[in-house]
Every structure is written in C-alpha cells, then in structure tokens.
Write a structure and sequence with these properties.
about 150 residues, mainly alpha, two-stranded parallel sheet, 2 strands, flat, identical protein binding
Length: about 150
C-alpha cells in the first residue's frame, strides 16, 4: 500500500502533467486576492493610457488562456468587466491590420513591429515580416504581419 507521501507525489505529478496544478494555484491566488482586497478604499482613476495598456494585456492573457491572471488584472486595476472592442483599440492606437492579423492579440503585432522596425536589430524570437511597413507619420498607420505557428 502506498504511503500518504507517495500518494501526494503521484497526485502532484499527475496534476502538473495535465496542466491543472498551475490553474489551481492561480485560482487560489485570485480568490485570496479577492478576499483581501479592501473594497472600501477607492481606486485611483484609470487613465486613458492605462485603460488601453490593460486591455492589450487582457487580450493577450485571454488569448493564451491565462483566465485567472486576467481576472486578477481586471479586479486589481479597476478595468471594466466587459472587454473593450478590438476595433476601438485599433482606432485608438492607429493600427492598420491585415486580414490575417485579426486572429492574434494586438500586443503580438506591436511587439513584432518593435522588433522588426529596425532591421539591423531583428530578434530571432519572431519571424521576419515581409509586409511590415511603417508610415512616414511616427504615430499613425503602423501595419504589421501576424505571427503564424509555422513561423515560430
């Protein structure tokens, strides 16, 4: 008969292999945070920039199925529960998307643009994007190519 210690080790190993142990730990952290969060203390107002940054992060977290991290971000930051519309973000950030880029979070495109904006400093983490174009206006008209799984 297995000892309690052996049973715990097998259970822990099984949960880790299935990927559920990390989710359980994240859920516990989120619940502890919610229990300890002082609702009586008013949150500072959410600036327009922070709203956009938080939304980019939330879109990334949810795309990668980090739902508990996303829920903690939303609760802690005071971000609206309902996500902002992607088209709103695209318009606010002056991003020009192609049809393929709509399947990945905007943050991927922003990182891709930063990595490939200066071809001399291209990082191998992301693929080269042949259609990458930067407009003459520094803050408008950024076009980027999406990351594809076969390129990664």
């Amino acid at each position: 008969m297995a000892t309690i210690t052996e049973l715990k080790a097998v259970l822990t190993d099984t949960l880790e292999k299935r990927g559920t142990l990390g989710q359980i730990k994240a859920r516990i952290r989120a619940e502890v945070f919610n229990a300890l969060d002082d609702q009586s203390e008013p949150r500072p107002s959410l600036s327009h920039e922070n709203l956009l940054i938080n939304e980019l992060i939330r879109e990334y977290l949810e795309f990668n199925k980090y739902k508990y991290a996303s829920s903690v971000l939303t609760a802690e930051s005071g971000q609206p529960e309902v996500p902002l519309d992607r088209e709103f973000l695209v318009n606010e950030l002056n991003i020009v998307e192609d049809p393929n880029s709509r399947s990945v979070p905007l943050l991927y495109g922003i990182i891709n643009q930063l990595l490939h904006g200066n071809e001399e400093k291209v990082c191998n983490t992301f693929p080269r994007a042949p259609s990458l174009q930067v407009s003459n206006q520094p803050t408008k008209g950024v076009k980027w190519a999406p990351l594809r799984s076969q390129d990664a």
